[in-house]
Design goal:
The protein has a 5-stranded mixed β-sheet with strand order 2-3-4-1-5. It is globular. Helix content is about 30%, strand content about 15%. It has 2 domains: about 30 residues, no CATH class; about 110 residues, P-loop containing nucleotide triphosphate hydrolases (Rossmann fold), CATH 3.40.50.300. A hairpin with a 4-residue loop joins strand 2 and strand 3. By secondary structure, it is α/β, with parallel strands linked by helices. The structure holds adenosine-5'-triphosphate and magnesium ion.
């Protein structure tokens, strides 16, 4: 049996490969096709929003070197506890080319040099200055309702 990269799957890798996100995800968790700038994923509690975001960010990050990514949550604690270390967070779902979290610099670093920095919508001014190729905002409505994030600066 071959995996998605065309490599032979040995018995030790078989179980791991069956958990590939491409096989597990629901249609609504698949990123839109074509040239898009904003992917808004709305769903009920536990519907898989965070997991879809984490899987997409990790896939883009591990495939593209030296990207700069913003991870935005309502608080820095949410960013760390949900988007990075949570059950659906990047560090929990990453199966290969796993990033390291540098707590002192509040950032994830992938082996290929891609970096994701965490931000809080409580401090929207912190998004001014640094430049990013892309941003993932979890629970965006909490930031928008409180009018703390200027979408232009987060996008
Ligand atoms: N396609 C899937 N297959 C299997 N498990 C999944 C899938 N999508 C999500 N999960 C799991 O379901 C649980 C809930 O997912 P997730 O945390 O992404 O939901 P959520 O919509 O962000 O929830 P909340 O509304 O609480 O923020 C997690 O354990 C996650 O790993
Ligand atoms: Mg969530």
């Amino acid at each position: 049996m071959l995996d998605f990269d065309g490599r032979e799957i040995g018995s030790e890798r078989l179980g791991r490969s069956f958990r590939l996100w491409a096989l597990e995800r629901h249609p609504a968790q698949e990123a839109p096709k074509g040239d898009w700038r904003v992917w808004l994923l709305m769903g009920g509690r536990g519907s898989g929003k965070t997991r879809a975001g984490a899987e997409w960010v990790h896939e883009v990050a591990r495939r593209t070197a030296k990207l700069r990514i913003a991870l935005v949550a309502e608080t820095l604690g949410d960013a760390r506890e949900v988007m990075i270390d949570g059950v659906s967070g990047i560090c929990r779902i990453a199966r290969r080319e796993r990033p390291e979290f540098e707590a002192s610099r509040r950032r994830l670093v992938w082996p290929n040099g891609t970096i994701a920095q965490i931000f809080s919508s409580e401090d929207p001014e912190s998004l001014r200055g640094p430049q990013f190729h892309l941003a993932w905002c979890d629970e965006l409505h909490r930031s928008i309702v409180s009018e703390r994030v200027n979408l232009k600066s987060a996008a």
